[in-house]
Design goal:
Layout: E1 2-8, E2 14-19, E3 32-37, E4 44-50, E5 60-70, E6 73-81, E7 91-97, E8 105-106, E9 120-126, E10 132-138, E11 154-159, E12 172-176, E13 208-214, E14 220-228, E15 231-239, E16 249-250, E17 261-267, E18 273-279, E19 287-296, E20 299-302
Antiparallel strand pairs: 1-2, 2-3, 3-4, 5-6, 6-7, 7-8, 9-10, 10-11, 11-12, 13-14, 14-15, 15-16, 17-18, 18-19, 19-20
Length: about 300
């Protein structure tokens, strides 16, 4: 599993989502599954959370499902792409369900992200005024059959309509990958080539997997992923005033540096906060790991090493 996401259900228990298609980079997509647990140790599943309905616009690269309770329903934000260039580039679509495990059905008319550039990894943030924002990445990947991707990945915030079905403004650039001193160009081990379906440019810097955390003092932290000296990594950026539009200040060192990433933090009923991410970043060996974290105005601190490495 890549891109794990854990939902703590208000009525009790947890639901785990993630990217699990066998041919995740460019093969035919199946959908999203989920697993359930009462204790974060023993998991039941998989259960089908989403299967594309007839006529669905996308058929590949089903990535990074996130599910949150919002407006009396459960909302899934997920990345989709099509092998048909006429369908437009990869984007983030909104789906809904009455149950945390689905089945989820399309809610927005295709992606809510801009339809002229490839986008991915959307997360929902509701500000103090109740305004919903989609924070998402324009990573280094190019659209299938189009020009190569950009060389400096970007992170954006996009205001959504109250019902989440459409954008309600223009994207706001938050930062580029090069803003973080630890972010390095994508590299692969000797003898390993990047998947052709990603359509990468030369020596790209990535932005992936945003997750926003509000602190008691009102600051806003963002976990996000790029590549560092030791492979895929998780960094932290901070908006001291708590505004989703920033300005965002990057931490000098990644929170997690060793070939794992796309992390998110959830809170259990006792108030404990846990970071989950996939490690290692080597297909098909990715697994879900979890570690306790401490979140304060000063930043995010790991309280252990989930890999034992």
């Amino acid at each position: 599993m890549r891109d794990p996401f854990v939902l703590a259900v208000p009525s009790g228990g947890f639901v785990l989502f993630g990217t699990t298609d066998e041919n995740l980079w460019g093969g035919p997509a199946t959908g999203f599954d989920c697993w359930t647990s009462d204790d974060l140790v023993t998991w039941d599943g998989p259960f089908p959370a989403f299967r594309p309905p007839a006529g669905f616009w996308a058929d590949t690269q089903f990535w990074a499902p996130e599910v949150v309770a919002h407006g009396g329903r459960y909302v899934m934000l997920a990345t989709f792409a099509s092998t048909d260039p006429a369908a437009g580039p990869r984007g983030v679509q909104v789906l809904v369900s009455d149950q945390p495990t689905g089945p989820f059905l399309p809610w927005s008319e295709g992606p809510v992200t801009p339809r002229d550039v490839p986008c991915l990894d959307g997360t929902l943030f509701v500000d103090d005024d109740g305004v919903p924002w989609l924070v998402y990445s324009r990573g280094a990947e190019g659209a299938p059959g189009g020009p190569p991707g950009i060389t400096d990945g970007e992170m954006y915030a996009l205001r959504l309509a109250d019902d989440l079905a459409a954008p309600a403004g223009s994207p706001v650039l938050l930062f580029r990958a090069s803003a973080a001193a630890w972010s390095k160009p994508l590299w692969f081990p000797e003898g390993v080539e990047p998947p052709e379906q990603l359509n990468l440019g030369k020596d790209p810097l990535f932005t992936d997997g945003p997750c926003l955390l509000r602190t008691e003092g009102g600051a806003l932290h963002m976990l996000w992923s790029s590549f560092g000296e030791e492979g895929y990594a998780i960094g932290v950026a901070t908006s001291p005033d708590g505004e989703v539009t920033g300005p965002w200040h990057q931490r000098d060192e990644p929170l997690w540096a060793r070939n794992g990433g796309h992390g998110m933090v959830f809170t259990d009923p006792a108030g404990g906060r846990h970071l989950v991410f996939h490690w290692p970043n080597d297909t098909p060996h990715e697994r879900v790991v979890m570690v306790d974290v401490e979140v304060s105005d000063d930043g995010v601190r790991l309280l252990g090493d989930p890999t034992g490495a």
